[in-house]
# Entry
Amino acid sequence: MHPELIDRLVLSSPGILQPSLWEGGRWINESKYPCPDSLKFVDAHGPQMDGLSFWTMRGMAAMALSTAFNLKLMSDQEGDGLLNTLASRFTRGMVCDPAHVLPEEGGAGWYAHGWSNYYGDLYDPRPLMRNCQTRVLVLQGQCDYIPYAATYEYADLFLNSRYVFIEGAGHIIWWDKPELFLQQISGFLGETEQP
# Structure
């Protein structure tokens, strides 16, 4: 990490910081960062996976083989097409208003975007974050499926940060509230240095 090369950082709906910290069988963030009463989150369903029916058998087998053995069951083109189809379904739960879901742009890459939750011996970035002087803006939507306790941890760890809650927006903030999303970022980037 080279924070001296970064003037400002915008984190839009960041995921749960890994590795997660647990104590006594409980996620530490739940007690450390309780959601303020002033923030009225809307129950978000998150990516709509629809159980196993969400996946084709071929898709499940291709992901398992590529993850476990680095073998391709399908071509990149076929895999990317399947990912685009899946993305068009699971993004419905990433907005406040499903009418705001945009067509899948593609390009994520099936084999490059395997859904693995194994983080192995991942180092804990929190000590570096606590010493970072970079100015940070953390954005979170009202319908975000990522819990407040996960998102707010970023704002707490960075020394010079600001958390902004955006009403009427989901995990993909710019789909629900594109003007407000850009306004928050432009304002943050346009601020002069604080004394």
